Amino acid sequence: MGLFSLCVVALSLFSFSVVHAHEQYHNNIKPTDCDLPRFNAEDFVKRFQGKKIMFIGDSLSLNFWQSLVCLLHTALPQAKIVREANETISTFKLEDYELSVILYHSLYLVDIENDNIGRVLKLDSMKSGDTWKNMDVLIFNTYQWWGRKGPQKQWDYIKDGDKIYQDMDRTVAFRTGLTTWANWVDSTLNSPEQKVFFQGISPSHYHGNEWNEPGLKNCANETEPVKGSIYPGGTHPATKIVKDVLDTMKTPIYLLDVTTLSQLRKDAHPSSYNGLKGMDCTHWCIAGLPDTWSQLLYAALIQ
Ligand SMILES: *[C@@H]1O[C@H](CO)[C@@H](O)[C@H](O)[C@H]1NC(C)=O
Ligand SMILES: *[C@@H]1O[C@H](CO)[C@@H](O)[C@H](O)[C@H]1NC(C)=O
Protein backbone atom coordinates (compact mmCIF):
# COMPACT_ATOMS: atom_id res chain seq x y z
CA MET A 1 0.00 0.00 0.00
CA GLY A 2 2.86 2.36 0.91
CA LEU A 3 2.61 5.75 -0.64
CA PHE A 4 -0.94 5.38 -1.75
CA SER A 5 -2.36 4.50 1.62
CA LEU A 6 -0.59 7.55 3.04
CA CYS A 7 -2.13 9.58 0.29
CA VAL A 8 -5.57 8.21 1.00
CA VAL A 9 -5.30 8.90 4.69
CA ALA A 10 -4.43 12.45 3.78
CA LEU A 11 -7.31 12.59 1.34
CA SER A 12 -9.79 11.50 3.92
CA LEU A 13 -8.76 14.65 5.73
CA PHE A 14 -8.32 16.80 2.68
CA SER A 15 -9.30 20.36 2.33
CA PHE A 16 -10.41 21.89 -0.91
CA SER A 17 -11.56 25.15 -2.25
CA VAL A 18 -14.86 25.71 -3.96
CA VAL A 19 -14.72 28.10 -6.87
CA HIS A 20 -18.35 29.22 -7.01
CA ALA A 21 -21.63 27.49 -6.48
CA HIS A 22 -22.53 27.84 -10.17
CA GLU A 23 -19.29 26.06 -11.03
CA GLN A 24 -19.98 23.33 -8.58
CA TYR A 25 -18.76 20.53 -10.81
CA HIS A 26 -15.36 22.09 -11.24
CA ASN A 27 -14.27 21.96 -7.65
CA ASN A 28 -10.58 22.05 -7.23
CA ILE A 29 -9.93 19.15 -4.91
CA LYS A 30 -6.48 18.77 -3.46
CA PRO A 31 -5.21 16.43 -0.78
CA THR A 32 -3.42 18.14 2.08
CA ASP A 33 -0.26 16.09 2.46
CA CYS A 34 0.61 14.64 -0.93
CA ASP A 35 0.47 15.39 -4.63
CA LEU A 36 -2.19 13.61 -6.59
CA PRO A 37 -1.12 13.12 -10.20
CA ARG A 38 -3.35 14.65 -12.84
CA PHE A 39 -5.46 12.09 -14.67
CA ASN A 40 -3.62 11.43 -17.93
CA ALA A 41 -5.74 9.46 -20.39
CA GLU A 42 -2.94 9.02 -22.97
CA ASP A 43 -0.70 7.55 -20.31
CA PHE A 44 -3.55 5.43 -18.97
CA VAL A 45 -4.36 3.73 -22.28
CA LYS A 46 -0.68 3.08 -23.04
CA ARG A 47 -0.01 1.53 -19.66
CA PHE A 48 -3.09 -0.65 -19.82
CA GLN A 49 -2.84 -1.67 -23.44
CA GLY A 50 -4.23 -5.17 -23.87
CA LYS A 51 -5.75 -5.20 -20.38
CA LYS A 52 -9.21 -5.71 -18.96
CA ILE A 53 -10.41 -3.45 -16.18
CA MET A 54 -13.64 -4.47 -14.49
CA PHE A 55 -15.91 -2.65 -12.07
CA ILE A 56 -18.09 -5.10 -10.17
CA GLY A 57 -21.01 -4.01 -8.05
CA ASP A 58 -24.23 -1.98 -7.93
CA SER A 59 -25.13 1.38 -9.48
CA LEU A 60 -22.29 3.09 -7.60
CA SER A 61 -19.99 0.92 -9.68
CA LEU A 62 -21.90 2.12 -12.73
CA ASN A 63 -21.26 5.69 -11.58
CA PHE A 64 -17.52 5.01 -11.24
CA TRP A 65 -17.33 3.16 -14.57
CA GLN A 66 -19.13 6.04 -16.32
CA SER A 67 -16.62 8.50 -14.91
CA LEU A 68 -13.58 6.53 -16.11
CA VAL A 69 -15.12 5.90 -19.54
CA CYS A 70 -15.96 9.61 -19.92
CA LEU A 71 -12.49 10.71 -18.83
CA LEU A 72 -10.90 8.40 -21.40
CA HIS A 73 -13.33 9.20 -24.17
CA THR A 74 -13.14 12.96 -23.68
CA ALA A 75 -9.36 12.93 -23.86
CA LEU A 76 -9.27 10.57 -26.86
CA PRO A 77 -12.27 11.63 -28.96
CA GLN A 78 -10.84 10.07 -32.14
CA ALA A 79 -10.24 6.66 -30.60
CA LYS A 80 -12.17 3.78 -32.12
CA ILE A 81 -14.64 2.47 -29.60
CA VAL A 82 -16.68 -0.70 -29.44
CA ARG A 83 -19.55 -0.87 -26.97
CA GLU A 84 -21.40 -3.98 -25.99
CA ALA A 85 -23.94 -4.40 -23.26
CA ASN A 86 -26.49 -6.78 -21.85
CA GLU A 87 -28.26 -6.93 -18.50
CA THR A 88 -25.17 -8.02 -16.65
CA ILE A 89 -22.12 -6.78 -18.51
CA SER A 90 -21.33 -3.48 -20.25
CA THR A 91 -18.07 -3.21 -22.12
CA PHE A 92 -16.35 -0.09 -23.41
CA LYS A 93 -13.41 -1.12 -25.55
CA LEU A 94 -10.75 1.17 -26.98
CA GLU A 95 -9.89 -0.91 -30.03
CA ASP A 96 -6.53 0.62 -30.87
CA TYR A 97 -5.26 -0.22 -27.41
CA GLU A 98 -7.16 -3.48 -26.90
CA LEU A 99 -8.20 -1.95 -23.60
CA SER A 100 -11.59 -2.87 -22.13
CA VAL A 101 -13.28 -1.05 -19.29
CA ILE A 102 -16.06 -3.35 -18.18
CA LEU A 103 -18.97 -3.05 -15.77
CA TYR A 104 -20.37 -6.20 -14.15
CA HIS A 105 -23.70 -5.57 -12.47
CA SER A 106 -23.94 -7.34 -9.11
CA LEU A 107 -25.89 -5.97 -6.16
CA TYR A 108 -24.39 -8.17 -3.47
CA LEU A 109 -21.34 -9.84 -5.08
CA VAL A 110 -22.63 -13.10 -3.57
CA ASP A 111 -25.38 -14.94 -5.47
CA ILE A 112 -29.12 -14.66 -5.59
CA GLU A 113 -30.64 -17.82 -7.02
CA ASN A 114 -34.17 -18.91 -7.75
CA ASP A 115 -34.75 -22.06 -5.71
CA ASN A 116 -38.06 -23.85 -5.16
CA ILE A 117 -38.72 -21.74 -2.05
CA GLY A 118 -38.16 -18.44 -3.92
CA ARG A 119 -35.28 -16.03 -4.44
CA VAL A 120 -32.46 -16.94 -2.11
CA LEU A 121 -29.56 -14.67 -1.21
CA LYS A 122 -26.70 -17.12 -0.68
CA LEU A 123 -24.17 -15.58 1.64
CA ASP A 124 -21.61 -18.30 1.03
CA SER A 125 -21.81 -18.59 -2.75
CA MET A 126 -20.21 -16.43 -5.43
CA LYS A 127 -20.52 -18.16 -8.78
CA SER A 128 -19.96 -15.04 -10.88
CA GLY A 129 -16.36 -15.13 -9.70
CA ASP A 130 -15.61 -17.39 -12.65
CA THR A 131 -16.04 -14.40 -14.95
CA TRP A 132 -14.18 -11.96 -12.72
CA LYS A 133 -11.07 -13.98 -12.08
CA ASN A 134 -9.55 -13.36 -15.52
CA MET A 135 -9.48 -9.58 -15.26
CA ASP A 136 -6.30 -7.55 -14.85
CA VAL A 137 -7.77 -4.84 -12.65
CA LEU A 138 -10.84 -5.41 -10.47
CA ILE A 139 -12.73 -2.75 -8.53
CA PHE A 140 -15.40 -4.24 -6.26
CA ASN A 141 -18.23 -2.55 -4.43
CA THR A 142 -21.31 -3.61 -2.53
CA TYR A 143 -23.28 -2.04 0.29
CA GLN A 144 -26.35 -0.07 -0.83
CA TRP A 145 -28.68 -3.04 -1.26
CA TRP A 146 -27.92 -4.94 1.94
CA GLY A 147 -30.21 -2.81 4.08
CA ARG A 148 -33.18 -2.55 1.71
CA LYS A 149 -36.62 -3.68 2.82
CA GLY A 150 -40.08 -3.95 1.27
CA PRO A 151 -40.45 -4.01 -2.52
CA GLN A 152 -36.79 -3.04 -3.01
CA LYS A 153 -35.61 -6.21 -1.33
CA GLN A 154 -34.28 -8.50 -4.03
CA TRP A 155 -34.65 -11.84 -2.20
CA ASP A 156 -37.17 -13.87 -0.22
CA TYR A 157 -34.76 -15.82 1.98
CA ILE A 158 -31.17 -15.66 3.12
CA LYS A 159 -29.08 -18.80 3.17
CA ASP A 160 -25.78 -19.26 4.97
CA GLY A 161 -24.36 -22.76 4.90
CA ASP A 162 -27.20 -25.14 5.78
CA LYS A 163 -29.28 -22.48 7.48
CA ILE A 164 -32.13 -20.63 5.83
CA TYR A 165 -33.46 -17.38 7.30
CA GLN A 166 -36.49 -15.24 6.48
CA ASP A 167 -34.44 -12.26 7.49
CA MET A 168 -31.51 -11.45 9.71
CA ASP A 169 -29.51 -8.51 11.05
CA ARG A 170 -28.45 -6.90 7.80
CA THR A 171 -25.09 -5.73 9.09
CA VAL A 172 -24.33 -9.35 9.96
CA ALA A 173 -25.46 -10.43 6.48
CA PHE A 174 -23.26 -7.75 4.89
CA ARG A 175 -20.24 -8.81 6.92
CA THR A 176 -20.81 -12.48 6.08
CA GLY A 177 -21.25 -11.82 2.36
CA LEU A 178 -18.20 -9.60 2.26
CA THR A 179 -16.18 -12.29 4.03
CA THR A 180 -17.20 -14.80 1.35
CA TRP A 181 -15.91 -12.34 -1.23
CA ALA A 182 -12.66 -11.78 0.72
CA ASN A 183 -12.03 -15.53 0.96
CA TRP A 184 -12.68 -15.90 -2.75
CA VAL A 185 -10.20 -13.12 -3.55
CA ASP A 186 -7.59 -14.75 -1.32
CA SER A 187 -8.03 -18.17 -2.84
CA THR A 188 -8.53 -17.15 -6.49
CA LEU A 189 -6.76 -13.92 -7.37
CA ASN A 190 -3.21 -15.17 -6.88
CA SER A 191 -1.47 -13.46 -9.75
CA PRO A 192 0.81 -10.66 -8.61
CA GLU A 193 -0.06 -8.95 -11.89
CA GLN A 194 -3.69 -8.58 -10.89
CA LYS A 195 -4.67 -5.43 -9.08
CA VAL A 196 -7.63 -5.62 -6.74
CA PHE A 197 -9.52 -2.68 -5.26
CA PHE A 198 -12.46 -2.25 -2.97
CA GLN A 199 -14.42 0.89 -3.70
CA GLY A 200 -15.11 2.43 -0.29
CA ILE A 201 -18.68 3.00 0.86
CA SER A 202 -20.37 5.79 -1.10
CA PRO A 203 -22.51 7.93 1.24
CA SER A 204 -26.03 9.27 0.59
CA HIS A 205 -27.44 12.60 1.76
CA TYR A 206 -31.01 12.21 3.03
CA HIS A 207 -30.51 13.29 6.63
CA GLY A 208 -29.75 16.97 7.10
CA ASN A 209 -28.90 16.38 10.75
CA GLU A 210 -25.66 14.82 9.48
CA TRP A 211 -24.57 18.25 8.18
CA ASN A 212 -26.18 20.41 10.86
CA GLU A 213 -29.43 21.16 8.98
CA PRO A 214 -31.79 18.88 10.90
CA GLY A 215 -34.97 19.81 8.98
CA LEU A 216 -33.69 18.61 5.62
CA LYS A 217 -34.72 15.25 4.21
CA ASN A 218 -32.61 15.36 1.06
CA CYS A 219 -29.92 17.19 -0.94
CA ALA A 220 -32.35 19.16 -3.15
CA ASN A 221 -31.09 22.62 -2.39
CA GLU A 222 -27.46 21.88 -1.66
CA THR A 223 -25.05 23.98 -3.72
CA GLU A 224 -21.91 23.80 -1.60
CA PRO A 225 -19.89 21.05 0.03
CA VAL A 226 -19.63 20.79 3.79
CA LYS A 227 -16.93 23.24 4.80
CA GLY A 228 -13.68 21.95 6.22
CA SER A 229 -12.55 18.36 6.23
CA ILE A 230 -14.68 16.80 8.96
CA TYR A 231 -18.17 15.48 8.27
CA PRO A 232 -20.40 16.43 11.21
CA GLY A 233 -22.37 13.18 10.82
CA GLY A 234 -19.24 11.20 11.67
CA THR A 235 -17.78 8.05 10.23
CA HIS A 236 -20.02 6.01 7.99
CA PRO A 237 -21.15 2.96 10.01
CA ALA A 238 -20.33 0.47 7.24
CA THR A 239 -16.70 1.52 6.88
CA LYS A 240 -15.75 -0.39 10.03
CA ILE A 241 -17.14 -3.62 8.58
CA VAL A 242 -15.27 -3.06 5.32
CA LYS A 243 -12.01 -2.33 7.12
CA ASP A 244 -12.41 -5.31 9.48
CA VAL A 245 -12.92 -7.68 6.56
CA LEU A 246 -10.12 -6.22 4.43
CA ASP A 247 -7.75 -6.49 7.40
CA THR A 248 -8.18 -10.27 7.43
CA MET A 249 -7.13 -10.64 3.78
CA LYS A 250 -3.84 -12.07 2.54
CA THR A 251 -4.12 -10.57 -0.94
CA PRO A 252 -2.73 -7.06 -1.23
CA ILE A 253 -5.89 -5.08 -1.71
CA TYR A 254 -6.37 -1.35 -2.03
CA LEU A 255 -9.24 0.27 -0.26
CA LEU A 256 -10.16 3.27 -2.39
CA ASP A 257 -11.10 5.21 0.68
CA VAL A 258 -13.55 7.64 -0.90
CA THR A 259 -16.09 7.74 1.92
CA THR A 260 -15.14 10.84 3.88
CA LEU A 261 -14.32 12.98 0.87
CA SER A 262 -17.66 11.98 -0.66
CA GLN A 263 -19.58 12.62 2.58
CA LEU A 264 -18.51 16.25 2.31
CA ARG A 265 -20.07 16.55 -1.17
CA LYS A 266 -23.74 16.94 -0.30
CA ASP A 267 -23.91 19.25 -3.35
CA ALA A 268 -22.71 16.65 -5.87
CA HIS A 269 -25.81 14.45 -6.31
CA PRO A 270 -28.28 14.73 -9.21
CA SER A 271 -31.12 15.50 -6.71
CA SER A 272 -34.26 16.06 -8.82
CA TYR A 273 -32.25 16.33 -12.06
CA ASN A 274 -32.19 12.65 -12.81
CA GLY A 275 -33.63 10.19 -15.30
CA LEU A 276 -35.80 8.56 -12.66
CA LYS A 277 -38.64 10.29 -10.89
CA GLY A 278 -38.06 11.64 -7.43
CA MET A 279 -35.00 12.68 -5.53
CA ASP A 280 -31.60 11.08 -6.01
CA CYS A 281 -29.12 11.90 -3.26
CA THR A 282 -27.39 8.54 -3.62
CA HIS A 283 -25.69 8.69 -7.01
CA TRP A 284 -23.39 11.44 -8.26
CA CYS A 285 -23.38 13.83 -11.19
CA ILE A 286 -20.85 13.24 -13.93
CA ALA A 287 -18.75 15.25 -14.57
CA GLY A 288 -18.32 15.50 -10.84
CA LEU A 289 -17.25 13.68 -7.74
CA PRO A 290 -16.62 10.22 -9.29
CA ASP A 291 -13.91 11.87 -11.41
CA THR A 292 -12.03 12.33 -8.15
CA TRP A 293 -12.47 8.62 -7.53
CA SER A 294 -11.04 7.95 -11.01
CA GLN A 295 -8.12 10.20 -10.27
CA LEU A 296 -7.42 8.26 -7.08
CA LEU A 297 -7.68 4.98 -8.95
CA TYR A 298 -5.21 6.25 -11.54
CA ALA A 299 -2.81 7.38 -8.82
CA ALA A 300 -2.99 3.96 -7.19
CA LEU A 301 -2.47 2.14 -10.47
CA ILE A 302 0.60 4.07 -11.56
CA GLN A 303 2.43 4.31 -8.26
C1 LIG B 1 -23.81 -10.96 -21.35
O1 LIG B 1 -22.63 -10.91 -22.12
C2 LIG B 1 -21.59 -11.72 -21.62
C3 LIG B 1 -20.32 -11.38 -22.38
O2 LIG B 1 -20.54 -11.29 -23.75
C4 LIG B 1 -21.99 -13.18 -21.71
O3 LIG B 1 -20.96 -14.01 -21.24
C5 LIG B 1 -23.23 -13.36 -20.85
O4 LIG B 1 -23.70 -14.68 -20.97
C6 LIG B 1 -24.33 -12.39 -21.27
N1 LIG B 1 -25.39 -12.45 -20.28
C7 LIG B 1 -26.70 -12.40 -20.59
C8 LIG B 1 -27.65 -12.40 -19.45
O5 LIG B 1 -27.08 -12.37 -21.76
C1 LIG C 1 -35.61 24.30 -1.93
O1 LIG C 1 -35.67 25.71 -1.75
C2 LIG C 1 -36.82 26.31 -2.31
C3 LIG C 1 -36.66 27.82 -2.20
O2 LIG C 1 -36.30 28.18 -0.90
C4 LIG C 1 -38.05 25.79 -1.60
O3 LIG C 1 -39.21 26.35 -2.16
C5 LIG C 1 -38.10 24.27 -1.78
O4 LIG C 1 -39.18 23.74 -1.04
C6 LIG C 1 -36.80 23.63 -1.32
N1 LIG C 1 -36.84 22.22 -1.67
C7 LIG C 1 -36.69 21.25 -0.79
C8 LIG C 1 -36.88 19.85 -1.32
O5 LIG C 1 -36.42 21.44 0.37
From TrEMBL:
It comes from the Eukaryota. One of its GO terms (molecular function) is O-acetyltransferase activity. Residues 1-21 form the signal peptide. Residues 36-299 form the Trichome birefringence-like C-terminal domain. One of its GO terms (cellular component) is Golgi apparatus. It holds the Pfam family PC-Esterase. The keyword Ribosomal protein does not apply. Keywords: Signal. Belongs to the PC-esterase family. TBL subfamily. This is Trichome birefringence-like family.
